[in-house]
Amino acid sequence: MKVRKIKKHDVESWKRRQGCGPPRVNGALTVLRELFDLADARGVLRGISPLRGVKNLPVGIKPFTLPTKDQMVAIRGSVYDSSPEAGLLFDLLAETGSRISTATAIRWEHINWDRNVIYYERVKWKEHGYEGPMSKKLREVLEKSKPERANGPIVSIGSIRKPLETACKRVGITPQISHHDLRHWFVTRCIEKKVDIPTISRWVGHVDGGALLMQTYGHLRDEHSQEMAKLL
């Protein structure tokens, strides 16, 4: 269809026919909005954009269940048994809360040892990267693993899916945890340690000030609230 002939009901009809999940549909809508903005700037569009008023599909929060602390220690040990590099990637995920695509892109040059921070170059929602602090545990692991010439990627593997699968079977966890569950693990630990939501949000690279974290981890915040009430 020609751009100027597309109407709002055409977009709404297209949106309803999509067989993929809400995140994919919403991503396509974002691209369409940018295309129609470009058409408007070029004078091709007649009238207002047909994307005006078209809302994104709601994205539900998938429930997740995390291992206990003892189980996570056992899983970590099993992953390290598979290979030191797999164990190092496990710690990068579990101690920074970064996504797998972000963690595997970290280079030794991205670590500022004096300031105790890591620069995350490859991020999902930001045009530029961001910095986050290193935990004491992660710093110790990285210092131990640091090569004589500290340059290049910290890890050369792109996944620990298989080692995680093997580890979960050994520990008896069903279903097995994923790369993203290690992100959940990091955020959960931060909340339990009473780190405020806006700070955690910055650490994991969110740009919404903590809105998604409050929605996803609301049950943990409620439990913490009740515990604090017992102190009164």
Structure in words:
It is a single chain. By secondary structure, the chain is mainly α. The termini are far apart. The longest helix has 20 residues, at 22-41. Helix 4 packs across helix 8. Helices cover 52% and strands 4% of the residues. It has helices at residues 8-17, 22-41, 69-82, 84-96, 100-103, 136-145, 161-171, 179-192, 197-203, 211-216, 218-229, and strands at 111-112, 117-120, 130-133. The protein contains 11 helices and 3 strands; from the N terminus they run H-H-H-H-H-E-E-E-H-H-H-H-H-H.
Basic shape: globular
Largest sheet: 3 strands, antiparallel
Instruction: Name the helicity range.
Output: 40-55%
Task: Look at the helices and sheets and give the structural class.
Answer: mainly alpha
> What is the beta-strand fraction?
under 5%
- Low-pLDDT windows of residues: none
Give the number of DSSP strands: 3
CA(first)-CA(last) distance:
65 Å
